[in-house]
Amino acid sequence: MNNLFLRNQLCIPIKGYNRSIIYDIGRKDYFFIPKKHYDILNTNGFIKFDKINDNNERKELINFLIKEEIIFEVYDRNQKNRFKSLDRNFEAPNLTTNIVIHSNINAIFFDFIKGEYLLNLSIVAPEIDDDLFRVLNQINGLEIDCIYLYIENFDSETFEEKRKLLAQYNLVFSVNFFNTKPKTELHQNIYYNFYEQDFPSYIRRLTSDKLNINNEHFLEAYNFHSYYNGKLYMDKDGYIKNGLTNFKSFGNINEMKSDVFLETISSSEFRELGEVKKTGTLVCCDCEFRYMCIDSRVPLKGKDKWYHDVECTYNPYLSVWENEEGYVNLNDSGVNVSASGVTIDKKKLAHQFKKLWGV
Predict the structure, then answer these.
(1) CA-based Rg of the chain, rounded to a whole angstrom?
(2) What residues are paired with 71 via a beta bridge?
(3) Which domain of life does this protein belong to (predicted)?
(4) Can you give the residue ranges of every domain in the chain?
(5) Which phi and psi angles does 9 have, rounded to 5°?
């Protein structure tokens, strides 16, 4: 070996409070690594493994990273010039790229967005009914990459009949049902996902299976808020909001003309939450999953950083999810979060960490 190692630029080290993680955004996977190795790997130059004094530890890490194709060896220093660093900037075709509506939406909405390009359109419906098909028919001709359907109630008796009708709509990518036995099926190029919880619980709870690892999501989360950036939601009554869990309204589409609507969703006030970064948000900035989660909680302005008054289902200070054995919330871990900042009782936190992990 020449000991000239470079990091695969699609494998990105991210530091958390207790541990670091490698985001493999090319292969949509991730690997945990000790926190102390983050600084060694967080370089676009040659990796200085000689900073690890323990010979066995150094060899073990190198072998693991080579095996997982996180690093690779070159035999000449000049070869480094052949490998470009990843451009971490993020660009979207429009200010608004993801819209969520209900199946009772006023038809005027489709005139408002005519000519706009959307990556995703999500439609929430109580069931697969005439209102939903009316909306699907009105969407024909619009520039949309794909459509996601969220059906609040699952009707097993009419399911097969409705599935045949949905197969006629090429833009439908997935249909999600709630209050039913969990499973996933692929039928005629449409994913049918079934969830045990109800729809309100689904949209509010972040779980490990919702972590999203790919190039586009990472770049968006690195530069913006991965949930609120480019997001527009209109509730059942036509009120314009940033997302499904927001209370603040920016007017009602039923009382607007097209120019006012477009001006509203393009305003800096409406787009403010989309500009919130995880590194500027309390607790999230200490979380190793911050660039792969889709967090619908509403950020609040604090003294120096944004914060949440609703706790996440993952505790980054103990590295444990709410549904896992030994979970303890932030306050009981010794972590207090408020508008003024985060204070940590390190003795209490260390006790809880040792109790959970035996370290």
Answers:
(1) 23
(2) 7
(3) Bacteria
(4) 5-81, 98-205+229-275, 298-357
(5) -70, -10
